[in-house]
Design brief:
alpha/beta, 25 strands, globular, binds pyridoxal-5'-phosphate
């Protein structure tokens, strides 16, 4: 557990058992329940589900929803806030039906609503949200069809808000509202001057692409006044960006928004709702700092800061406390999914032992390299490696000019890699590694080939260098003896993971165990529930993975409540416009031609066609 820092980033949902298994540890009926992931994998395998599998633990999602509501309730009770909290889940963070269904089911207890950013999301939200007290927030571009649908939903009793992202939207909304005779609930998205740190900061600040600046807000107010419809303006919204690591940025933004809110109340708008958007971060690396993969606050601190800031600034102006809405998606769903995958093979950068003696005709430079290798110690590592690089490059030059044979060059390269490996071993004895040699471990790391696609399952790891906790899910009662980077099966040079969380920050190699004969080795990528499924793509035609949802009971037993089989090869080919039937016909024609030409027999044709058909029906990942 210490090697991988699981207790730092696991948020109490994951731990390591005495038998060395990663266990899922939800808090049910006032006690911790422990469910072994390797045992879950065994159950999946028995049911015929191949790796990779995306495992969703419904209890974790429920727990995150409850925690958010309880924290806001406690913060409000503590200071005597005179209104309520209403969460809305932004569908974009993970649109899968099972996710929305679970959020609306469990969130129903708290009137948790939904945020839709497009027509498709609105349609999903209208069908999934049955609670008239929950809010449905419509952000994003809205055309006439979108607006009409939203207006009818309002008439049906939905608590649906159109948030104006651009001044031009108002005209169309007012026109349709008049035409249909339905009064909308309107919100305005403001551009904050405040800008936060983190990966996604462009959502905030004056230059953010969405929202109204103060002049545009005033124009909206004037237009509504002139149309005698200011009574529709009920909500102020902003979104500072996702994954805001620093609580100071969150507080600054709330204070700025409260000033604008009071300004709108002064103008005569009824208001009543303040929507703070997303931003609540996930502590992916468990460091509890304001580093991009972390956050320097707890959920309780977030809620307390928001509530206090709203209350203080509104009390100062004598404005009634609004319903506070947040659009946290990442923090709700990140913990809920774990990608489980197996290792298919490894490759090691290990040099053969140094020869006892060099051959008679060995060139002097190779002899020098050999002497440097023999005399390397913990005191002269850096100097010896500098010499080694010099000799290696010179030897390569001689090879190019034909003065060194292939066999001699191979000998030199082996001595060089032997030195690099030895240097890494020596450096592990030091407390402080010289900065020039920090990359040494990475240079000699093994490559573990993982049965998954980075682009499909953890796209942010490739796209923005986000670091997710990744670790073996078993054999944790043995010290890992190897250090590796992971390569996926897309055969793309970017299809690798070479940043890992360790208890001291981010490491370039992952401690792993040696593979055993006849025993599979399984790893998990944790905290991948937010954004990854949606942003994942079909690079190299590796499709959606199998997905299994788990519900754990108080006694530690569990059910696989849902299973969605991953894409077949035929599915992904159809996504890119192939017709699997046509492909079959074409290939059969080629096979028949081969029979005609005597290359294969008719019986062989049958075998080949069977392999083709099995491939079409099969999983896009490596099957056992
Ligand atoms: N609300 C809006 C308008 C967003 O654009 C986003 C995503 O960036 C969110 C909410 C979700 O934010 P978070 O990822 O911080 O939960």
């Amino acid at each position: 557990a210490e090697v991988y820092g699981i207790r730092n980033w696991g948020a109490g949902y994951f731990d390591v058992s005495r038998e060395g298994h990663v266990v899922i540890t939800p808090f049910l009926d006032n006690k911790k329940v422990r469910v072994s992931i390797p045992k879950i994998i065994k159950g999946l395998r028995e049911r015929g589900l191949d790796m990779p599998v995306l495992l969703r633990v419904e209890n974790i999602l429920d727990s995150q929803i409850s925690l958010l509501h309880h924290s806001f309730r406690a913060a409000m009770d503590k200071v005597g806030y005179k209104n309520v909290f209403r969460g809305v889940y932004p569908i974009k963070v993970n649109q899968q039906e099972q996710v929305i269904e679970e959020i609306t089911r469990h969130g129903g207890k708290y009137h948790h609503g939904l945020e839709a950013g497009s027509k498709a999301e609105l349609i999903a939200a209208l069908a999934m949200l049955r609670d008239p007290e929950a809010c449905l927030i419509c952000n994003g571009y809205k055309d006439e069809e979108f607006i009409d649908l939203g207006l009818f939903a309002r008439k049906m009793g939905y608590n649906i808000f159109f948030v104006l992202e651009m001044p031009s939207e108002l005209e169309l909304i007012l026109e349709r509202a008049k035409a249909l005779g339905i009064e909308p609930l309107l919100g305005a998205r403001m551009k904050l001057a405040a800008k936060a740190g983190g990966h996604w900061t462009e959502s905030g600040g004056d230059r953010s692409i969405f929202g109204l600046d103060t002049a545009q807000l005033v124009q909206v107010v004037d237009k509504l006044k002139s149309e005698n419809m200011l009574s529709c303006l009920r909500l102020l919204h902003y979104h500072l960006g996702s994954q805001i690591p620093n609580i100071r940025d969150i507080r600054t933004a709330v204070l700025e928004a409260c000033r604008v809110y009071c300004g709108l109340v002064d103008e005569g708008a009824p208001m009543g709702y303040l929507d703070l958007g997303g931003g609540l971060a996930v502590d992916y690396d468990g460091s509890h700092t304001n580093y991009v993969n972390s956050r320097n606050y707890t959920l309780d601190e977030y809620c307390a800061d928001v509530v206090e800031a709203v209350m203080e600034s509104l009390d100062e102006k004598g404005v009634e406390h609004p319903v506070i809405i947040t659009e946290s998606g990442r923090a709700l769903v990140a913990y809920y999914s774990v990608l489980l995958f197996n290792i298919l093979d490894t490759s090691r950068f290990e040099a053969a032992p140094l020869p006892k003696k060099l051959p008679e005709d060995t060139p002097t430079l190779i002899e020098n390299l050999y002497i440097a290798a023999k005399s390397m110690s913990v005191r002269n590592v850096q100097e010896s490696l500098n010499d080694a690089v010099y000799y290696r490059d010179e030897i390569r030059g001689l090879f190019r000019h034909g003065h060194v044979t292939l066999r001699q060059r191979a000998l030199a390269e082996n001595v060089f890699w032997h030195m690099v490996n030895q240097a890494a071993v020596l450096l592990r004895q030091l407390k402080q590694v010289p900065p020039e040699l920090e990359d040494l471990e990475e240079a000699i790391a093994d490559i573990y080939y993982a049965n998954m696609s980075v682009f499909q399952s953890v796209p942010d790891s490739w796209a923005i260098g986000q670091v997710f906790p990744i670790m073996p899910v078993h054999r944790l009662d043995e010290m890992p003896s190897r250090r590796a980077i992971l390569a996926d099966i897309t055969c793309d040079c970017d299809g690798k993971i070479d940043r890992f969380i360790d208890p001291h920050g981010v490491a370039k190699v992952l401690p792993v165990h040696d593979l055993k004969d006849n025993e599979e080795y399984f790893l998990g990528a944790f905290l991948v529930g937010a954004y990854q499924e949606t942003l994942g793509d079909l690079h190299n035609l590796l499709g959606d993975t199998n997905v299994v949802s788990l519900r754990i009971r108080e006694d530690g037993s569990y059910d696989f409540v849902r299973e969605v089989e991953g894409d077949t090869v035929a599915d992904v080919l159809a996504y890119v416009e192939y017709n699997p039937k046509k492909l079959h016909t074409k290939f059969r024609e080629t096979a028949e031609k081969a029979v005609r030409e005597g290359r294969i027999t008719a019986r062989e044709r049958r075998e080949i066609m069977r392999a083709f058909e099995d491939g079409m029906r099969g999983y896009t990942y490596f099957e056992r």
